[in-house]
Amino acid sequence: MWNWLRKPVAVHQLVLDYENEHSIDKQCLASKASYLVLDFETTGLDAKKHHIVSAGWVRISDCRIQLNSAVYQLVKSPASVGQSAVIHGLHNSQVQQGIELEELLSLLLQELKGSVLVSHHSALELNFLKHSCQNSFGRAPAFKAVDTLKLELYKMQLKGGPVAQNSLSLPACLARYQLPEVTEHHALSDAFGCAQLLLAQLKTRGASCTLAELFQQSR
Amino acid sequence: MQVQEVVSFLKQTPPFDDLALHVLEAVSRDLSVVYLASGEQLLPEPQLLLIRSGLFALNTEQQRLTHLQSGDFYGYQLLLTGLADPDTILCEEDGLVYFLPQESFDKLRHQYKNFDLFFQRLFSRRLHLYQSNKQQNTSTLKVADLVTRRKVSIASSNTVQQAALLMTEQRVSCLLIEQDEKLVGILTDRDLRSRVLAKSLPASTTVSEVMTKTPQSIDTDRFAFEAIQQMSQYNIHHLPVEQDGKAIGVLTTTDLIRSQQEHPVYLISHIHRQHQAEGLNAITPQVHQLAMQLAEQQIPSYEVSSVLTSIMDALAQSWLQIAEQQLGPAPCVYSWLGFGSQARRDMLPSADQDNALLLEKEPSGAVADYFSALADIVCNGLASSGQALCDGHIMASNPELRLSLKGWSNRFAKWLNTPAPQALLSSSIFFDMRLIYGSKALFNVLQQDVLARCKNNELFLYHLAKNATERQPPLGFFKHFLLEQDGRQRKGLDLKKRGISLITDLVRVYALSAGIHAVNTRERLALLQQQAVLTQRQHQNLQGAFDVLAHLRWQLQAEDLKRGRHLSNLLDPSQLNLLQRHQLKDAFAVIIDEQQVLRQRFCREL
């Protein structure tokens, strides 16, 4: 509540540009939309304390994953990767060869313009995006995402019955659609897996499904 | 950035598996990925389609339904010819399809000949003629496998006397001359003789004056046969070997000869040196060892079979000599005959005995007793050397198969003139015969007689062709494999009964109809094309199919040998890689087509 007392920070031009130029027609058919499927690997789950160590993303347009759009970036982390190395397999020496966080964010803000952000368990990506932008640029745009985990949960709840533990993990979801396994906890592989999952999920929702419905089910 | 999952999939999918990793990574970035749900139709577009997962039904103009699954391609027809097929592809099980744009496809075809060949073959439905680079590459020893000697080198500023001293000390016949770690020359025993001694040069002459400058060299990665080629081309006996641009040793003609020590020739001469039964009894492990080695070296299967047959011939010959030693000289001239796969030089480790005796005299009294004893020694001997006795008693130890020329001639006449299908089926093995030991003249008379009787014998050829087309390859209507069980309750594809034998049978009909002496299937095919009985295309197709099947069967039995299992002809198709699966299907398809051609040619109503 004391925020108004703080000295105003100059909001970075990138954020302003994004806010001005990014627009999505929510009535657009889900099959026609352009998506950016994103995955972060981080040093932990708390966006306030932890850091992004790698990011991977790939685009979907016309219901096709465009592999020429695939990007994988290591990101310099101000703190040690610590125990998280056990999960994503990245060590300090590798991470330190990555790009600066600001560079990653400016890349992403460019890429995201006009595209729908997609993640599996998008809370993590959204939180890290928000905090990073806030810290680096003085303000974070209002990011919204389609969450393949929530889309899956929505379908399961529609069917009724209990949702088994772990049945919503990316590997479990991929297996349910008989999609090929991906290397878990590699940012680009996970993004690619998530993209394949979204394609499969779109098929189960019929041709008339709109972006608004996807956002609705991602809540 | 490439997606690892996509690259790995390409890496195991022919023909992409022949491409270097960096090429695959670039290819993977050109792809787009589509998900199809069952019931959806896949619309053709000018891209190469590669099925990643799921099941798709392809309906072509000819109404033949084919299933496309992981690793299968579509769309190459349009890309190769510019003509769209009126095909429809319906998704039956949800799956992913990779799309490669025409531009990338054309670039790959342009840059990689084998890649282009794969799709040309796929297009002409002759994939069984395609050979992956990998199959070719692993076929031979590399230079690195042969260089055993350490490097001995000297600087060019040294005198020839110092060089000679070093060579004597190190017991080598040649020195590498190096400067700044770079190979600048080579000096051999012969150079010291012809360039120094013969020219009366003083011992103080420097090496640089007499060495061979900028000598030939070869990289460790090259094949041994390339080294041999290079050495004979330049008429040299010493070839410096380099790794990463630095000399690491010398390859000599002796090294190359030594590399051939494992050669079957040595085993055969070893067999011929044995004059005692004991020596031959112990031979089985060596034969199996050799069979495995040959199979692992990826030597073409017909060569491996031919080598194994030579060994089995040598065994029979040695046992016959031992028998003659024991029983004394034979009372008359005779020929030891081999039938079936031994005659065709087509043997496998699992082959059993198929042999017989052709005698100059009628087998009665003392003559009969002698050959009965001889046959027992040889057949039992072969059994103890690892060649199983024949279940069907097609062996010389069976008195019905110890006949005079007249006896054999009558026997064949009976088969030929009253070819009851059942009798014919069990006798067809006799129509592939070869002399293993004994009188060639006697054998030639019988063979001429049989061939003359077969040629133009329409009724006989009718039944033979009918028999040959009775069994069919295990390929179903949907181009899927039909599995069957063997006696051991294993399921699989019988590569012998429903593959190789079908080709052998088919080729035999043509060969007998044309009076061809050769019994080896490949030789028969070559002669049949020469005599215009078969077209070049038929020849290629049949031979390609035969090679694919024979290769798979060798792999199967080599694996059985390695694991000490019962030798089997039953292949589990899930063990096949994608290329092998394609090739096997094409090989079966060739047999189906050729059986139809054979039927039309010989089985029209008489």
Class by helix and strand content of chain B?
alpha+beta
Mean pLDDT rating of chain A: 90
Major β-sheet strand ordering of chain A = 3-2-1-4-5
| Main β-sheet, spatial strand arrangement of chain B | 1-8-3-6
Q: Nearest-angstrom radius of gyration of chain B? A: 30 Å
Most extensive chain interface and residues per partner: A-B, 30 and 25 residues
How many strands appear in the DSSP assignment of chain B?
A: 22
CATH level-4 homologous superfamily of the largest domain in chain B: Beta Polymerase, domain 2
**What is the helix/strand order of chain A?**
HEEEHHHEHEHHHH
**Average pLDDT figure of chain B:** 85
CATH architecture of chain A: 2-Layer Sandwich
Protein topology:
The complex is a heterodimer of chains A (219) and B (606).
Chain A: H1 13-21, E1 35-42, E2 52-61, E3 64-74, H2 85-88, H3 92-95, H4 101-112, E4 116-119, H5 122-137, E5 145-147, H6 148-159, H7 170-176, H8 187-204, H9 211-217
Helix pairs in contact in A: 7-8
Chain B: H1 4-11, H2 21-30, E1 32-36, E2 41-42, E3 47-51, E4 55-59, E5 65-68, E6 73-74, H3 76-81, E7 88-93, E8 95-101, H4 102-111, H5 113-123, H6 133-137, H7 143-146, E9 153-154, H8 160-170, E10 174-179, E11 182-188, H9 189-197, H10 207-210, E12 212-213, E13 218-219, H11 224-233, E14 238-243, E15 246-252, H12 253-259, H13 264-273, H14 277-281, H15 284-296, H16 301-327, E16 334-339, H17 340-343, E17 355-359, H18 365-384, E18 402-404, H19 405-417, H20 421-427, E19 433-438, H21 440-454, H22 458-470, E20 484-485, E21 491-494, H23 496-513, H24 521-530, H25 536-562, E22 570-571, H26 578-602
Parallel strand pairs in B: 9-10, 13-14, 17-18
Antiparallel strand pairs in B: 1-8, 2-7, 3-6, 3-8, 4-5, 4-7, 10-11, 11-12, 14-15, 16-17, 16-19, 20-21, 21-22
Helix pairs in contact in B: 1-2, 4-5, 13-16, 15-16, 15-25, 16-18, 19-21, 22-23, 22-26, 23-24, 23-25, 23-26, 24-25, 25-26
